[in-house]
Every structure is written in C-alpha cells, then in structure tokens.
Amino acid sequence: MSNASAPELNLLKARMKELSGLQAAAALMYWDQATYLPEGAAEARGEHLATLEKFAHQLSTAPEVGQWLESLSRQNLDEKSNDHFLVKIAREDFDRNSRLPAEFRAEQASHASRSYEAWKKAREANDFSIVSDHMKKTLDLSRKMAEYLREPHHKSMIDPLIEISDKGFNEANLRVLFGELRSRLLPLLEKISAAAPFDDACLREHFPEDKQLAFGENALKKIGYEFSRGRQDKTAHPFMIRFAHSDVRITTRVRENYFGEAFFSTIHEGGHALYELGIDPSLDGTPLAQGASTAVHESQSRLWENLVGRSLPFWEYFYPQLQSTFPNQLGKVSLAKFHKAINRVERSLIRTDADEVTYNLHVMIRFDLECDLLEGRLKIEDLPEAWNERYRSDLGLLPSKLSEGVLQDVHWFHGGIGGYFQGYTIGNVMSGQIYATALKAMPDLEDQFRRGDFATLREWLRTNLHQYGRKFDGPELMKKITGRELAAEDYLRYLETKYSKLLTLA
Ligand code: ZN
User: Fold this and answer.
1) Are residues 136 and 177 in the same domain?
2) pLDDT confidence tier of residue 183, bands split at 50, 70 and 90
3) Distance 328 CA to ligand 1 centre (A)
4) Per-residue pLDDT at 4
5) pLDDT value for 53
6) Structural domain tally of the chain?
7) Residue 44 and residue 26: Cα distance in Å, rounded?
8) Element (H, E) at 232
9) CA 210, CA 89: separation in Å to the nearest integer?
C-alpha cells in the first residue's frame, strides 16, 4: 500500500504542480512567440521567458526538494502506484538539474541565443567563419555538460547527452542498430534508384491554402484530434506543444505549390498531439504528464504520418474527398499514381525533406560527425569538409551552399552538439515494431482505415502506450507494448514490402 499520506509526498506534489504551472506559462509564451508575437517584442519576450525559467530552476532544485525525495525513497511506495513513478522520475530530474550549476545553465542559454543569431547570418552569407567560433564554444559547453552528467556506465562522451532525451540508448547500442539499418536500407535505395523515378508532378500543382488547411483539419478530426482540447496555427517550423491535458496545440506550414508539405506535417504533429492527449489525466501537474522520450514521441508522429498516412488504405478513404476538394488538380490522377507520388524516394541534401528510405541516412551522418566532434577526432574548422565528404560518399551528392549542407539544421547552433538526432531514427524503428504489433493484434485494422475508422488504432495506442506518459522509458515501453526488445526487423520489413509493391506499379 502506498503511504499516500506522507507529508513529504504532498509537499512534493504541490511543488510539482507549481512547476508545471510555470512551465505551462513559459510554453504559452513560446507558442505565442512562434505564432502571433509582434516582431518588435522578441527581446522583451526573451527576458520574460528567462525570468520564468530562473524561478522554475530555483523551485525544482531547492534543497527541500532533495530532502523530500530522500525521505520518500526510503518509504516503500507501492511499485505500481503513480506515486512510486512520480518519486522515481522527480528524483531523476532533480539529480540531473542539481548537477548542472546555475551559472553553467545561464551561460548555455545566453550562448544559445548568440549562436542562433550567428547561424542565421552565416546561412544568409553562406560563410561558415561567421559561426565557427560560436560552434567551438557550443562544443566546449556540450563536453562540459557531458562531464557534469557523466556516470560510470557511460562509455562515450555522447552517452550522457543521449541519456537526457533517450534513456536506455548509448553510442555502442546505436552503432549496432544503425549498422543493421544501413546494411538493408542501402540495397533498398539502390533497387529503387535503378527503377524509373516516381513521378510526383501531381503534387506540385497550385493548391490554395484555405482548402489545404480545411482538408488537413478534417483529417485531423478523423484520426481523433479534438479541437475542443487544441487548435492548429501556422508557423515557419511546425511543432506540437502541451500546456495541459485539456490543451495540446499543433502548428503547420503551407506551400501552395506542393501538396505534400502541409498535409503530412499536419498528420505528423497530429500524431505527437494524440500521444499527449492520451496521457492519463490524473498525471496532469506532475513531471509524468509528458511523452516518454524524443524517440517514443517520434514513433507516434511517424506512425501516423508514414505507416498510416502514406498507406494505400488511408488514401482509399481520403482520396475521393481530396479529388473533390481539388478537382482541377487531381480529378484525373489515379489513386495508384497519387499513392506513388506521396512515397517518392530520392537521394537529397535536406534531412527534413527526405523520404522514408533515405531519412535515416541523414541522421547517421549527423550522429557520426557529432561523436567525432565530441571525442576530439574532428575539429570544427574541418566540419564543413567532413560533412560534404559524407554526403558525397553516402548519398552521392554535394551541397552547393552551406544552407543545404552543414548549416541546414538548427540543432547544433541553438541547443548543443550530441544527444538529439538519434531520436528521429530510433523513433522510426519503434514505429515499425509498434505498428507490426498493432496489426497482429487487430488484423482488420487496414480495412477499418478504408472505411475512415481510425478509432481502434488510436484507442489501442492510448491503452498500450499513451496513457503511461513518462512512467516508463523507451526500451521499457517497447517490451511492454510489443513483448520484445527494440529491433530493426519490423521496420525494415515494412519498408521493403511497401517499396517492392510500389515498384511493381506502373
Ligand atoms: Zn516530430
């Protein structure tokens, strides 16, 4: 029986509730900044955000929190109770936050915004030297952070950084996973490239923005996104953000001359949102009320975007509606042709535009380079050349400007070096294994999609994954949901089967 009356537990819960209120306020300020904030107000907003973050840090690392946690970890809380998980996760967060000195975090934050501004200028001017000193400092700070968080089980510099967002993973086990992916994705890519390129001209007609948005919102409702607990706005870079169980918002961006942009980013962010909306509401106001990890979150967005949203059964239901929304553009385009177009594979320079087959190759390049940087095998001044060399050898392409090369992603210029990119690929692999498990449990799932019914899948995901929030980490969840350790097989088989079918279509 959990000792729910322990005074420390009530104090901890009250503190966590205050913290989640502060975090929600900061998140709302950030959402506003990305959507509607007047340009001239950016600096004031930055200061307000910094104030909130300072208070949140103080409240979360105050000595009394350590004392409560210390006392609670000596009590025998029922291991199945939410209180047990609350204490476990709150303790992990407290330990991590307390190991990073306040001055270090402040230095990190102010450096991040300077580096971000330099990155924007360097992209404009196509000049790496504008950002290289900032990046040296970022590398320094990332190494320092790894040192602060380092524990005996960490073997590589990047390991403590990976653990922040993807517990259970490290350089060694990711190298095995990535190696397996590579050994089958490269031959698949060869096979697809040898065939005639998929024609996606039908997606590149003019698609008016209002109609695209309306079509996307209708699809969101169909998969179960509730507009009574959220909304969709437009931003330069789409994202999902949670303020509370009753308020999970998403954003999208529209290109009128390309149908693929808004729709698939809407479904992607919708997948993230379904995860957050599905978390047990009784966890609200605690650190358990969020997704388990970057990778698990991506597994949900990609499951809806790719495994469901780019599948034939999904479009057997939606395509007639899409054709009547855009009769001039798509009225004469067959479903088979459209389905092939949205699954076009192409070696390209830009990660965020990459298809399902090449996407992970982009991630692996970044992962290898950041390991080399952190371990001191690669110098910042040699990074652009090393980047180009990897794109030449892995994808057979050479960027003609830095914004298509080493300066394309914001991650190394706003956050830190190491610990983020791997989550995208782990998430892809998880999505394959989770979906294979769902299909085994519900063999008629795709027939349901053909009828426009997505509730069974959504509810299955909620029961088996979403409801738990952060109670379990990625590897624990995979075991719980699929009964197996994470492995690449299901994901690779999904891609190989899908593309061998698509290749036989004219
Ligand atoms: Zn995502």
Assistant:
1) no
2) very high
3) 32
4) 52
5) 87
6) 2
7) 13
8) strand 232-234
9) 43
Give the residue numbers marked as catalytic: 269
Contact 499, 192 (CB under 8 A): yes
What mean pLDDT value characterizes the chain? 95
Let me know whether 381 and 256 are in one domain.
yes
Where do the H-state alpha helices sit in 238-303?
Answer: 259-277, 294-302
CA of 76 to the centre of ligand 1 (A): 38
Task: Mark whether 130 and 180 lie in a shared domain.
Answer: no
Rounded Cα distance between 355 and 358, Å, is 6
Pair of tokens at residue 124: 């404009």
Question: Are residues 292 and 432 located together in one domain of the fold?
Answer: yes
For residue 190, the CA-to-ligand 1 centroid distance in Å is: 27
Q: Which residues contact 467 (CB under 8 A, 6 or more apart)?
A: 278, 279, 280
Same domain, 110 and 180: no
Q: Which helix (H) or strand (E) holds 373?
A: helix 359-374
pLDDT of 505 > 80? The answer is no
pLDDT at site 2: 47
Residue 301 alpha carbon to ligand 1 centre in Å: 6
Q: What is the 268 CA–ligand 1 centroid distance (Å)?
A: 6
Element spanning 327, H or E = helix 327-330
Residue 362 lies in a domain: yes
Q: What is the CATH number of the domain that holds 195?
A: 1.10.1370.30
Provide, rounded to the nearest whole percent, the portion of the chain with pLDDT above 70.
Answer: 99
- Side by side, the strands of the sheet bearing 240-244 are 232-234, 247-252, 240-244
Dump pLDDT digits (tens) for 62-118. 999 999 999 999 998 999 999 999 999 999 999 999 999 888 988 898 898 889 889
For residue 79, report the distance from its CA to the centre of ligand 1, in Å.
Answer: 32
Pair 88, 193 in one domain:
no
At 391-428, the pLDDT tens digits run: 999 999 999 999 999 999 999 998 899 999 999 999 99
Domain end: 149, 182, 216, which one?
A: 149
User: Rounded to an integer, what distance in angstroms lies between the CA atom of residue 364 and that of residue 412?
Assistant: 15
The whole-angstrom separation of Cα 268 and Cα 257 is 20
Burial of 134 (0-12, 13-18, 19+ CB in 10 A): buried
Question: Which domain, by its residues, includes 381?
Answer: 171-503
CA distance 113 to 316: 46
Confidence at residue 506, expressed as pLDDT on a 0 to 100 scale: 61
Contact call for residues 148 and 104 (beta carbons, < 8 A): yes
What are 434-449's pLDDT values in tens digits? 999 999 999 999 999 9
DSSP state of 237: S
Ligand 1 centre to CA of 303 (Å) is 11
